[in-house]
Design goal:
The complex is a heterodimer of chains A (132) and B (404). Chain A is mostly beta strands. Helices cover 6% and strands 41% of the residues of chain A. Chain B has 404 residues and is an alpha/beta fold. Chain B has twelve helices and twelve strands. In chain B, the strands form two sheets. A nine-stranded mixed β-sheet of chain B has the order 3-2-4-8-1-9-12-11-10, sandwiched between helices. In chain B, strands 6-7 form a two-stranded antiparallel ribbon. The chains are: A mainly beta (132), B alpha/beta (404).
Chain lengths: 132, 404
């Protein structure tokens, strides 16, 4: 069993790119603002010419928590796991999880880079691992 | 006392009522709501049939509708009813709406209520129980598809599913920004949890009345979502609270000790949604400082005038953060304030004197309002001597200032 994102017209391109191993964020064609998660209008200039921009996939851990008690049966087998709020080099924040290191190694400010994990035939999620 | 503008001379809490609080109660949420509303009306000295306004939390938080109560209680007619969203962040909003309705003449006797039956419905600490929480996927071969709503589809697939996990992210960020070691954070959060437990030990209504909490037990408890341990998280329980808001004039006619609503606030700005998963700017600033200034400005009081505070504590971290957000401690200084001054009976500002959500019961902030009323009437189990002004506040800025 996997927990997968339901997709809307607005969010599907993000997940489609992830399934191709690319991390993208919404970009305003008028003023260039990057927004994540995507919105139906640019909050800065109210532009409606919204597209997607591939980002570097690098960033830093803004905050994190090591989950040691499952709140959902779908994650019971993954305990402990590390949820992180990642600040991308380009600015936007992403909720994700840290992989590729021991939970105890994770710290705020840690440089990370995106990696991709296929969850189901249709869904791939961006994760982050230490950038070393 | 002059200059206490806006609501002071217009609205007051005339009655409070509650049920027992327990991990599991036999009655349904509907029955609990009926009991609490009847108790509040009896306390106010009003006939429940005369209730003409109701205000509650939105569904799915509040499962008992005003229509259910109007039917069950034989209320003749409501001329005002309203709902406020965002869970515990509705605590100031329901007071604001009720007081505004009374002030505007939309209703005369407004009941605010909150009924919870977590034993029969979903528990807030479990994402896989309750109405639709399993997303219909009960067999192991079916994927759970998280519908996109308030960015949940960007969080659930990573296992970020419960309030406690979100608050753990905040707490960790606080420690990182302000340079707390793990031991500093443990001592700070533990001080809050243990202090509130001591209040609960004196509160006959508290679920944790007979359970002591010492440092060994606190430190030895299992981590739920680091850095939050078991005792940093609120209780899960059944129970109901209600209170009656009338005009100040009516309240004075009903009783000698009405509790006046000096101010009540809501606040919402981009990426500051209460419980918002995605924030912008500094995560630790959960609401604009202007909202707190508005709360105090409209009440016509200062921080120094607050005698007791009931701060919404789904986790111990929120008590800490709210001390800073509402201006009782400078930004980043709240943890030292907790360690040096504390929040106990002899501290400059006693906080969560009923035990709070950590140790009395979890009623989504409503039990904090009831405790503030008891403090201002002089009937609290841990009475703050001469308490005249109380603040009840949630971490994202929904709050009320009450006075006797």
């Amino acid at each position: 069993m996997a927990v997968v994102p339901g997709m809307t017209e607005l969010t599907a391109p993000y997940w489609q790119a992830a399934s191709e191993g690319r991390l993208v964020v919404q970009e305003c064609g008028s003023c260039g603002r990057l927004t994540h998660p995507p919105l139906p209008a640019c909050p800065r200039c109210h532009g409606r010419d919204l597209g997607w921009r591939a980002v570097s996939g690098t960033g830093t851990v803004y905050s994190y928590t090591i989950v040691r008690h499952p709140t959902h049966f779908a994650f019971a087998g993954q305990i402990p796991y590390t949820i992180a709020l990642v600040e991308l080099t380009e600015g936007p924040w992403l909720i994700s999880a840290i992989t590729g290191c021991e939970p105890a190694e994770v710290h705020a400010g840690m440089p990370v880079r995106a990696t991709f994990r296929q969850l189901t035939d249709a869904v791939t999620l961006p994760y982050f691992e230490p950038a070393r | 006392m002059t200059g206490r503008a806006v609501l002071r001379n217009t609205a007051a809490i005339a009655g409070i009522g509650q049920t027992a609080y327990a991990k599991a109660l036999e009655p349904t949420a509907w029955e609990l709501a009926v009991e609490a509303v009847l108790a509040a009306c009896a306390d106010a000295g009003v006939d429940v049939a005369d209730v003409d306004g109701m205000c509650r939390f939105t569904a799915p938080f509040e499962t008992v509708s005003e229509a259910m109560l109007v039917r069950a209680l034989g209320i003749r007619e409501l001329s005002f009813f309203a709902q406020a969203p965002h869970g515990g962040e509705a605590l100031g909003a329901v007071v604001a709406h009720a007081a505004a309705a009374v002030s505007a003449g939309l209703a005369n006797v407004v009941v605010v209520y909150r009924a919870l039956s977590q034993s029969k419905g979903g528990r807030f600490g479990r994402a896989d129980r309750g109405d639709g929480a399993d997303r219909g996927a009960t067999d192991p071969d079916t994927d759970i598809v998280v519908p996109e709503q308030d960015n949940l589809s960007f969080a659930w697939p990573y296992g970020l599913m419960s309030p406690g996990q979100l608050f753990a992210l905040w707490a960790r960020r606080y420690a990182a920004v302000h340079g707390l070691t793990d031991e500093d954070l443990t001592r700070t959060l533990g001080t809050i949890a243990i202090t509130q437990r001591q209040y609960a030990n004196r509160n006959p209504a508290a679920m944790m009345r007979d359970r002591k909490l010492d440092w060994d037990t606190y430190r030895g408890a299992r981590m739920i979502s680091e850095p939050l341990r078991l005792f940093d998280l609120c209780l899960e329980n059944d129970g109901a609270c209600a209170f009656v808001i009338t005009s100040a004039q009516t309240a004075r006619a009903l009783r000698d000790d009405p509790v006046y609503v000096l101010s009540a606030t809501q606040t919402l700005s981009p990426y500051r949604e209460p419980m918002g998963i995605y924030t912008g700017g500094e995560m630790l600033e959960l609401f604009p400082p202007a909202a707190a200034d508005r709360l105090f400005g409209q009440a016509g009081v200062t921080r120094q005038d607050i005698d007791v505070a009931e701060l919404y504590d789904a986790t111990s971290y929120m008590t800490l953060r709210s001390l800073e957000s509402y201006g009782f401690a400078a930004g980043g200084a709240g943890w030292r304030y907790v360690l040096e001054q504390g929040t106990g009976p002899d501290s400059p500002l006693p906080v969560n004197t009923h035990g709070g959500h950590l140790s009395e019961a979890y009623l989504h902030g409503m039990n904090g309002i009831l405790e503030a009323v008891r403090q201002l009437r002089g009937t609290a189990s841990s009475q703050v001597a001469g308490a005249e002004v109380a603040l009840v506040g949630a971490p994202a800025g929904s709050a009320t200032i009450l006075a006797r």
